Amino acid sequence: MTVHLTLDNEVLAKTYDEISDSQFHNGSTLVGELEVKSGATVLDIGCGTGRLGRYVVEIIGTSGSLIGIDPLAERIRIANEKNEHSNAVYKIGSAEDLGSIADNSIDVAYLSAVFHWVTDKVTALREIFRVLKPGGRVGITTGAKELNSFSEIQQITDSVLKREPYAAVVKTEDATLKKHGLTATELIQLLTQAGFTVENIQVKKITGSHATAEDLIKHHEASSFGNYLSHVPESLREQAKADIESEINKGRTKDGIQFDRHTIFAIAQKRSEHG
């Protein structure tokens, strides 16, 4: 199952900008671990609506510069609408093609909640390695596939889709994240093969909280730009959402809906010319 870039729309993009608190929190933590400094040239790959980029611009100041790229036109539109800094640029682009960026020109690159959506990860890392300065660093947050496949939300989704009328036409293994997500070991291997030195890699448990099951599903749909149930035929998708929400609501407490997810935080460096 491929990653669909045509399922995004104005509503999903706007919703993501408003409710992506968990991604923003993880992203700002990653930026801190990358030790982004004033004056740095930063590349935000998969910048979305620019929420994290706006935070980073405040760190790098007027002497720094930020380039944000994302393949989703609606999200870039919002990023540009909210951009108040002349040293920040947001444009349509993909991780696999950084041809508009010069070799050895970037101090820090990051992919916050993005790398699992990149279909050609080898090419993307090769491009990131090329544009980073010697000694430059890349940071990645991405779901830990080996743990999230057993998460409660994934178990509920799969259990619903194994019932009729879905079972006859849906293969749960075709879910987009199952096809393109990766384990911590796989990420280490990819980074190393691309020439990076892995400085730090951790898997952290992140607890998400939502008032209702409907809010949780909205978050999943907006975060995945429509890919959450893209392996379900369109004619059954709304029914599937309703059935999944019903199951999730069975676990609702006075504090709402809470689910644990596991996220990989990785920092790697392009070795300097002197090793």
Which features does this protein show?
275 residues; alpha/beta; Rossmann fold; 7 strands
The SSE string, one letter per element, is: HHEHEHEEHEHHHHEHHE
Whole-number tally of structural domains = 1
The N- and C-terminal alpha carbons lie at a distance of 40 Å
CATH architecture: 3-Layer(aba) Sandwich
Helix amount: 40-55%
Q: What fraction strand?
A: 15-25%
In what order do the strands lie side by side in the largest sheet? 3-2-1-4-5-7-6
At the fold tier of CATH, the topology name is Rossmann fold
Which CATH class is shown?
Answer: Alpha Beta
- Strands, total number: 7
Radius of gyration: 19 Å
Mean pLDDT: 95
Shape: globular
CATH superfamily: Vaccinia Virus protein VP39
